[in-house]
UniProtKB/TrEMBL annotation:
Transmembrane segments: none annotated. The lineage of its organism: Bacteria, Pseudomonadati, Pseudomonadota, Alphaproteobacteria, Sphingomonadales. This is UPF0301 protein GCM10009102_14230. Pfam families: DUF179 (PF02622). It comes from Sphingomonas insulae. It comes from the Bacteria. Coiled coil: none annotated. Belongs to the UPF0301 (AlgH) family. SUPFAM superfamilies: VC0467-like. Gene3D superfamilies: VC0467-like.
């Protein structure tokens, strides 16, 4: 039996031709992956017409110094649940460190801190997540459809969402324009 590859702190990239259209050109920041399952936050697409100020308004949090940053499509699971992927220079009651590369928080204290200017220096907000049950992602990784690369905070925070997919492949030395949307069989 092959030892599973655990992807916490890496990016999971949807290959061209992914059957599930929700994951077309997806870039997923993997935040947890072990024998019990996996959780990742989509960072490759934003939700049209939704900004951070809209979310802050819903929770009656004054905007303060927070820019009206786009909100990312974190994934199809629990699409109304919010997450903040952020630098490790801030921590709240539920913050988890992700392989020393970034942190993940999902309570209102991080949104309040961002609005007050006392939160993490680098962050992005997402609604929903991508989740897999025990062994499910391991099975998916054994078939065509996903590619993983090392997680990099620069790619996460310094590139716009629309550029992350191509940039992540580029970080592995792959020109995504040369990828075929189908696979062959012998």
């Amino acid at each position: 039996m092959q030892t599973p590859v655990y992807l916490s702190g890496q990016f999971l990239l949807a290959m061209p031709g992914m059957i599930d259209p929700r994951f077309d050109h997806a870039v997923i920041a993997m935040c947890a992956h072990d024998e019990d399952g996996a959780l990742g936050i989509g960072v490759g697409a934003t939700i049209d017409g939704l900004g951070l100020h809209d979310l802050l308004d819903q929770f009656e949090i004054p905007h303060g110094v927070a820019p009206d940053a786009p909100v990312h499509f974190g994934g199809p699971v629990e699409p109304r649940r919010g997450f903040v992927v952020h630098s490790g220079d801030w921590g709240g009651q539920d913050t988890i460190d992700v392989a020393g590369r970034w942190s993940l928080s999902s309570t209102l204290d991080v949104l309040r801190a961002i609005a007050e200017g006392s939160g993490p220096t680098r962050w992005l907000v997402a609604l929903g997540y991508a989740g897999w049950g025990a062994g499910q992602l391991d099975g998916e990784l054994s078939r065509p459809g996903w590619f993983h690369v090392e997680g990099d905070a620069g790619l996460l925070f310094d590139h716009p969402a629309a550029a992350r997919w191509a940039s992540a492949f580029g970080s592995a030395g792959i020109d995504p324009r040369l990828l075929a949307p189908t696979t062959g069989n012998a």
